[in-house]
Each structure stands twice: as structure tokens, then as C-alpha cells.
């Protein structure tokens, strides 16, 4: 090659490399689908978005580092958005907000995966203090973000407006958009459209359909639901990882402490690919059980009903969630009419969402729902205890009474037998006998022992809760030989659940034990007179 042709040859190589790099970078289309909207993009806005997409691809090393985090965390984000009824397209917002860095902090002091300020975090029931900061917990913070976005979308009926309100606040978004786009399904973007949504679309376009570029290294993040109090140090050996490993992926807990106020999710790396169903993690004694074991795995369900939010104001509406459904606790035994009026809900709706007959009393200490229950629970099965009713079980797990009856082909309480294994997710097959297990131990719920090949994938089923085993098994009840029973209060129990177990009323238990109110504590001894 002659020396005079070298500059031309180098120029040709540069053009080819530039063209190749350009071909690898996704190009912004003139029309794109987002959530349930069609977004039509004018040329000036398209060029703006393309510049942001190009910037995301400019540094290949940085892109791969971010892609690795995306590959680890996004399956969890997708699961939580799906369960909350939020479009999966919103998952790209967490990439835009924090690049999926757990302890990211903005200049305005927003923290965590979804960049919540403290006040906003507490509005969506995240705990933020010197012990726990759930903004740094991928599961909790995604639940909070889904709640926030869903609440704002209810104002606009437009997910683009709801997304922009994530940056501006609801008041700011209402002032910016007015009502012009409410309910609209076709949106036109131009040079004047909000920058935050254009930047979001750049992240969606950059990372959508780029799974071939994601580097998982054959690992995935597994979830473990933990009811404290316990520590990461205590859990680590059972998971086969180091305490340092758990601290790296669980920056939400200060000094590795997991308090006992509610159930928290711990994540850790496992080899392999994300399973269709979360691995079954049980109590400490059978902690190592593999998810595909055909032996029945048992676990205590004292964490049900699962109550989150401001539990100090549990008796007030809009303060707590019961099994992730809006709920409230009754302070006194009263009528449905009085209670519904007190919490600001129509009596008819209240009766419907709680599966109550017209004349049933409201029981003190019982949790009631203010939004409809679900068609399935977060655990597979429940073991019937003495004195339980179909209604009490449906309330315990937040499952519709009709669904519970249909799944098990049981219509009447008198058909229930102690030890029966009731399905809470799948329907019992026709002519299939209901299993009955001995009640020699306290577990209330078990995982179905169906071989994996016969199981229907349930990607949205939550994991069972890991609870540290007590130093010695608690004595739950014992006969005193004088017509009474001594009951020791266990984790998660309240007066209503104890009354259901023994077939007595809450007021009777309070009278027998001289209780001034409905407050009881774990380990407290209660006297139950035989009915």
C-alpha cells in the first residue's frame, strides 16, 4: 500500500468502526409503546432521547457493570411490580433513579434504589431510622414505589403523568399537566415535553431487549423472608455465605440487625438461574431443605396475618396493610354499622370485602380489610387448627372466602377437621382427597409435596418466612386439670385468633384474665375456661 493511500484507509476504518458502534446502540423510533400508552415522538424529541441513549452506551465497561446489577435486581423488581398491578415498563425507572445502587444518595438527600426522601418513604410504609432503612431494601422499596406510582396514576389514569409525578410530586404534576392528558392513551412528545419522561424513555430503549448484553455470571439473587429479631451473622452459616456477603447485599440493616417488628426480606447470591418459583426456605431446623424435595416442608405461620405500616395507629384507616391489603384493627366489639361509619367506609362494601353476614358482630382485636381480598394467598397451604373456621382462615391470609372454599371443595365449617391441609393457591383436583396431618407440633402451614414436574409455575408466590427457632419449644397450651387451659401467647397471636382457636369470645378471655384492654405479649400466660 502506498503511503498516499494510508490516510484514506485510516479514514475508512474509522467510518466502519463508527458505523458498527452506531449499529450496536439502539435507535429511538418515532413511535413506542409504554405501559398502556402509545407514545408518538417528534423528530426534535427523538434526537434528544437518542443523545441520552448514546451516552448510556458510550462507556462499555460502565454499561456492563450497570447491566450486571440490572440482571441481578430486575427479576425482583418485576415480581413486585407484577404483584402490585403496576405495568412492568415502570421497572426502567429504578435504573434511571439509582442505577440499582442500594445506598445511592442524591443531592437532595433522596436515598436508595428508588430514591425516596425520608418523609415520602414513611408515607409508603417504609421504615427509616438508625436500625433499618428500607429504602436500601430492593423488595421493600419496590413495594413502596409501586404503591406511590399506583396511587398517583389513580389521579391521572395516565402512567406517563404518574411517572413524571415521581419526580415532581403529585401537586407539581397536577399543576404541570392539568387534566388535559387524563385517560389519554396516545401521547405526543415534542421539544416541550417533560425532560424526565424523555430521559426515562432513553433508559427503556437502552436496556429493553438487551438481555444478550447482560452478564449474570451464572448467579441470581435469592430472597429469604425473615421474622426477627435475629442478625445477618446468625443467618449467614445456614445460607452457606459469609456475614460480609449478606452485609454487601443488605445495606438496609444497620450493623446486621434484623428487628422483630415485621417480616423483612434478605437477599443473597446463589449459583444458577432464577427459578420459576422462589426457593422454599423454612425454619431453622430444616433450613437446608431443597426446593425440589418431595418431602413436605413445614413452617410456622404466626406471621399471618402480615401487618405492615404504622401499627401504632392500626385502629385508624389508611395506616396499615394486612397481607398487603388496606386494613384496620377493631378496638372494641361493636356492630358493623358503627364500625364502618367510624372508619369511613360504606357498610355494604365493608361487609362484602370481609365476607361478613349482615348481623355478625365486629370483634375487638380482629383485623378487617377495607379493600377486597385476593383470590390466592402468599403461601401454598394451611393446616387447620382446632376451632378454626373457613372465615377465620380466609381473614388470616387475605384470601376471599369464596376462593378458599372453591380451591378446597369445602362449603361448610362442619366439614373442617383438625390437621386438614387446605390449599391457598391452587385448586384441589376433583376426587382428590384432602390430606390430614397430625397436630403434634405447632406448624400451621406446609408447602405442597407435589413433585416439581407436576407443579404449575407460580412466579408471584411469596416465600415462606424464616423465623429463628426459640431456645426451647414454647408450651402453647396445657390442661390444668380443673376445667381450664393454660395458653402461652406465641409470636403473632392476638386475642381474636386465640378466641377462635378455643371457640370462646374475646370478652370472655379478657374477663377470665382481668385484661384491661386487648394488648397481650409473647410468652404471657392466659387462662382459658373450657366451654
UniProtKB/TrEMBL annotation:
Q: What PROSITE patterns does its record include?
A: LYSM
Instruction: Please give the residue ranges the record annotates as the region Disordered.
Output: 286-314, 437-488
Q: Per the database record, which ranges form the LysM domain?
A: 380-424, 485-528
The record's keywords, sorted A to Z, are: Signal
Compositional bias (Low complexity): 447-479
Top-level division of the source organism's lineage:
Bacteria
According to the record, the signal peptide region is: 1-23
Q: Which PANTHER family match?
A: LYSM DOMAIN-CONTAINING GPI-ANCHORED PROTEIN 2, MEMBRANE-BOUND LYTIC MUREIN TRANSGLYCOSYLASE D
Which protein are we looking at?
Membrane-bound lytic murein transglycosylase D
Instruction: Report the source organism.
Output: Rhodonellum ikkaensis
Amino acid at each position: 500500500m502506498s503511503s498516499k493511500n494510508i490516510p484514506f484507509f485510516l479514514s475508512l476504518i474509522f467510518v466502519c468502526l463508527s458505523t458498527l458502534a452506531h449499529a450496536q446502540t439502539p435507535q429511538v423510533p418515532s413511535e413506542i409503546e409504554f405501559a398502556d400508552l402509545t407514545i408518538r415522538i417528534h423528530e426534535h424529541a427523538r434526537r434528544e432521547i437518542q443523545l441520552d441513549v448514546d451516552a448510556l452506551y458510550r462507556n462499555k465497561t460502565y454499561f456492563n457493570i450497570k447491566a450486571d446489577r440490572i440482571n441481578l435486581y430486575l427479576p425482583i423488581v418485576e415480581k413486585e411490580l407484577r404483584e402490585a398491578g403496576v405495568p412492568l415498563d415502570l421497572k426502567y425507572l429504578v435504573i434511571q433513579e439509582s442505577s440499582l445502587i442500594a445506598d445511592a444518595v442524591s443531592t437532595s438527600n433522596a436515598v436508595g434504589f428508588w430514591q425516596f426522601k425520608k418523609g415520602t418513604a414513611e408515607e409508603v410504609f417504609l421504615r427509616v431510622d438508625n436500625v433499618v432503612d428500607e429504602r436500601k431494601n430492593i423488595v421493600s422499596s419496590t413495594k413502596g414505589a409501586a404503591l406511590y406510582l399506583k396511587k398517583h396514576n389513580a389521579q391521572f389514569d395516565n402512567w406517563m403523568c404518574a411517572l413524571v409525578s415521581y419526580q415532581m410530586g403529585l401537586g407539581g404534576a397536577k399543576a404541570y399537566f392539568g387534566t388535559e392528558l387524563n385517560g389519554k392513551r396516545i401521547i405526543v412528545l415534542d421539544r416541550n415535553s417533560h425532560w424526565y419522561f424523555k430521559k426515562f424513555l432513553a433508559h427503556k430503549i437502552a436496556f429493553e431487549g438487551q438481555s444478550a448484553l447482560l452478564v449474570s455470571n451464572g448467579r441470581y439473587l435469592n430472597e429469604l423472608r425473615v421474622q426477627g429479631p435475629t442478625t445477618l451473622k446468625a443467618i449467614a452459616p445456614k445460607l452457606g455465605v459469609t456475614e460480609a456477603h449478606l452485609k454487601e447485599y443488605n445495606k438496609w440493616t444497620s450493623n446486621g440487625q434484623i428487628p422483630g417488628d415485621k417480616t423483612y426480606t434478605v437477599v443473597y447470591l446463589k449459583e444458577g438461574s432464577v427459578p420459576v418459583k422462589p426457593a422454599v426456605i423454612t425454619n431453622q431446623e430444616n433450613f437446608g431443605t431443597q426446593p425440589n424435595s418431595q418431602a413436605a416442608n413445614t413452617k410456622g405461620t404466626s406471621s399471618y396475618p402480615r401487618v405492615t405500616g404504622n401499627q401504632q395507629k392500626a385502629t385508624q384507616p389508611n395506616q396499615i396493610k394486612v397481607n398487603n391489603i388496606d386494613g384496620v384493627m377493631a378496638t372494641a366489639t361493636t356492630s358493623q354499622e358503627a364500625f364502618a361509619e367510624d372508619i369511613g367506609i360504606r357498610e355494604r362494601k365493608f361487609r362484602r370485602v370481609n365476607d361478613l353476614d349482615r348481623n355478625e358482630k365486629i370483634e375487638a382485636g380482629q383485623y378487617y380489610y377495607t379493600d377486597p381480598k385476593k383470590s390466592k394467598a402468599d403461601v401454598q397451604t394451611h393446616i387447620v387448627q382446632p376451632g378454626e373456621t373457613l372465615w377465620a382462615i380466609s381473614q388470616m391470609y387475605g384470601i376471599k372466602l369464596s376462593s378458599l372454599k372453591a380451591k378446597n371443595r369445602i362449603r361448610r365449617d362442619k366439614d373442617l377437621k383438625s390437621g386438614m391441609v387446605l390449599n391457598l393457591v391452587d385448586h384441589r383436583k376433583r376426587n382428590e382427597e384432602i390430606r390430614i396431618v397430625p397436630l403434634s407440633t405447632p406448624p400451621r402451614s406446609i408447602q405442597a409435596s407435589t413433585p416439581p414436574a407436576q407443579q404449575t409455575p407460580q412466579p408471584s408466590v411469596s416465600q415462606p418466612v424464616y423465623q429463628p427457632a426459640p431456645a426451647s419449644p414454647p408450651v402453647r397450651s396445657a390442661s390444668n386439670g380443673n376445667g381450664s387451659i393454660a395458653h402461652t401467647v406465641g409470636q403473632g397471636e392476638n386475642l381474636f385468633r386465640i378466641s377462635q382457636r378455643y371457640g370462646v369470645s374475646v370478652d370472655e378471655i379478657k374477663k377470665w384474665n382481668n385484661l384491661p384492654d386487648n394488648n397481650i405479649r409473647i410468652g404471657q400466660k392466659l387462662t382459658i375456661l373450657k366451654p
